[in-house]
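Fold it.
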Amino acid sequence: MQLSANLSWLYRHLDWSERFEAAARDGFRGVEILLPYDHPPAWYAQRLSDAELALTLINTPVDQDRGRLGWAAVPEAQTHFQHAFDRARAVAHATGCRRIHVMAGDTSGLSPDACMAALRRNLDHALAVAEADDLVLTLEALNRSDMPGYFYHLPEQVVEVLSRFDSPRLRLQFDYYHCVKEGLDVPSSVAACGPWIGHVQIAGADGRHEPDLGRHGLLEGVTALPGLGYDSWLGCEYQPRALPADGLAWCRPLIDRGVLQ
């Protein structure tokens, strides 16, 4: 595995035009961007190319003004979803990004059955496009403390959705931070979800800073990934306590064990 810098979190102290080169100087070869929609897709593609970085993950757009965390599981919002998904596809085409996190949305007060039907309908559409575009779509459970009302908050709820499609192009985005915030046993969750994991992210549960691998079973949970067949990126989705490079010592145990390159 290799570390991937989440530019939306790690380099908030810099202007967006400076974040790519900063990540490259800190030794990253891959980066994530939550919402790369403030500039045209070609703008992101050029900066990634200049910094010799791979874009490892993006999210579908969200409607921040209306409080929606995506549209995929929101009934009667298929047009909104398809528009959002097309915007994400445009960024993927321009940048070579192969993973898109499909945001399900805040479904507070809505019928769970209607939300599931909407999600399945929208994923049917998105997976057909993903096959043609050679994309992998990910779904992520978001904890109830930070994201109340999000359609799923436990990884097993996501796996239930994935199992209905059983497609290699639809995978679980496993985030250690959200697992810990939900009070889950991390090693057990990783073991149960291993066959479905298509992308991984990490942060410390206290303040969402650098992770402490000695707590919450994180070291065991991360070192288990290669044995489960996962050998891709480990996304650093946290707010550094100081400069990003100053806090990277947290990953030394993973390097010593040969888990990280």
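Residues 112-133 form the longest helix (22 residues).
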